[in-house]
Each structure stands twice: as structure tokens, then as C-alpha cells.
Amino acid sequence: MELGMIGLGRMGANMTERLLSGGHQVVSYDRDPEAIQRLVDKGASGARSLADVVQQLTMPRVVWLMVPAGDPVDQIIQQLLPQLAREDIIVDGGNSYYKDSIRRTQELKQSGIYFVDVGTSGGVWGLKVGYCLMIGADKEVFAKLEPIFKTLAPEDGYARVGPNGAGHFVKMIHNGIEYGMLQAYGEGFELLQASEFNLDLGKIAHLWNRGSVVRSWLLELAESAFTKDPRLSSIKGYVEDSGEGRWTVLEAIEKNVPATVLAFSLFARYRSRQEDSFAAKVIAALRNEFGGHAVKKE
Question: How far apart are CA 240 and CA 242, in angstroms?
């Protein structure tokens, strides 16, 4: 198939390369000319602008966005609209909020343009092993794009999970679960690190992946990380979040679902960014006030 790929960061570039290796024709565009050239060198067509992307595609056109969630998606859609026609398809493969995807579907429908939301998981390993694709779309549009999904995903690694918005909703919950899993592994390995046994954390990660009920790809990655840096001494304990965890917790509040682990794992990330927690200072001061417990001075 033929499609345009807008956004050639780590995910967009690797997805483009996988599509090219699968025999698809890709018109690539990014604000960085060097990013475009790297894909042109691998067989993609390069575009000078968003309008140029559309002009190089055959109708009905497919334009896939791999850009940051929020305003960047809306801005690109608005710039694309004058160039597009009825029956064209815009795919958002980024981590957009599912309610935004529902809104965009309704807005584009007025112009006869289809919208597809694709929750994409796989990270930097997707180029080699494929991407897990959680797709929200009309059944007919999904069928048109299925050759693209088959190339990007491993076997059984893609599915239409529901109508528009469902793809990004499922990816949002997926990432919320990821937060909880990462927190559990992080706390467990901290306890191992704090023991008196001088444990080999990489060896334990490898061991747990051989028949243990906690085996996972994350443990494979943990083994890799500990092999490179056994005590992670080169890494600062600062953990960013990209939005999906927050949206998951908000959804739990709206739906009255007690997502306690997911909520705590999000707040633990906030704590990781504090050089010195003021809340901890308050707790230490109060323990000193009511019980005379010693406090550490700056």
C-alpha cells in the first residue's frame, strides 16, 4: 500500500522502515530534514511539506501521524484538511487522549474524511519484533488498512478493538497497567538491592524469566539494564510520565473504579522528581513535635 508518514522520531522512523521492508510505499515528512533524508536513503519518498505529502499520494489517501498528543495533532490535521478530499483517511498512531480521538472523528466526518486511532506499543524494539496495534475504526476502514497493520504487527499483534476512540482508550489502560507493573518491579528490586546478600540483580531477573509467574519482557529488559550497570549507578531516579497514566487515573475516578495500584504508581513518579519532598519534611517535623523523634538537619 501507499501512505504518508508524518513524524519521524524513534517510533515513526522505525515504523516507516518496517513498512518499507514489507513492500509498502511511504512518503515521509518531519520538521527535521535530516530525519527525512535518513528514510529516503532506505527507500522512502521525501516530502518538503505537509501539502507535499498529500500531493505525492494517490487518492484515496492514507496519512499516518506519529506526533506528540494534544495540540500538535490538531494543528497538523488543520493544515492537512485543505489538501484532503472525501474518502481520505487520517491515522493517529500516537498516544492521544481517547476523547480527543472521538472529537476528531466527528469533526473530520463533516468533511467526509475518515479518522482511525491506533494505540501503538512496542517502543524501539518494534522495528525488529513488530508493534502491538490497538485500533479504533469503522469496520470498512479497518479492512482497507489491514495490509498496513499486518506489516507493522507480529502475528496476532493487531486488532480492531472497537469504534473510533476505542483504540486509544485500550492503549491508555495498557499504559496505566504498565505504570503499575514497573512500580512493582522497581520496589521489588529495591528490596533485593537493600538486602545483606549482595545479590546479582541481573542474574535474578534472568532466573525469574525461567518459569516464574512474574516472568515478562520487562524482566528481560531489567536483565539487560543490570548487565550494563549492575547497580544502575549512572541513572538518576527521575521518572517522567507522558500523560496516559494520568488519563487512566482520571477515568478510574469518573467510572468509580478503585484503581489503587495504578493511582499510586502515578504518584510515585511525581515523588521521583522531588529533590527533597516538602511533605516528608512536614511528616518529620510532626513526628518530632508529638513524639520527640529526631530529625535530620540540612
Answer: 7
Which active-site residues does the annotation give? 171, 178
Neighbour count for residue 150 (Cβ, 10 Å): 15
Angle at 242 between CA 116 and CA 228, to 5 degrees: 115
User: For the purposes of burial, counting CB atoms within 10 Å of the CB of 122, is it exposed (0-12), middle (13-18) or buried (19 or more)?
Assistant: buried
Q: What single letter denotes the amino acid at residue 208?
A: W
pLDDT along the chain (298 residues), means of 10: 95 96 96 95 95 96 96 96 96 96 97 97 91 97 98 97 98 94 94 95 96 94 92 87 91 96 93 83 80 77
- Grid cell digits, residue 273: 522528581
Amino acid at the residue 286? L
pLDDT score, position 253: 95
**197/62 Cα distance (integer angstroms):** 57
Residue 119 phi, psi dihedral angles, 5° rounding: -70, 125
Cell readout for 286 is 510532626
C-alpha cell at 9: 522520531
Global model pTM greater than 0.85: yes
Which residues, other chains included, contact 120 with Cβ-Cβ below 8 Å and sequence gap of 6+? 11, 15, 66, 93, 94, 126, 131, 132, 133, 134, 171
CA nearest 173: which of 270, 251, 231?
251
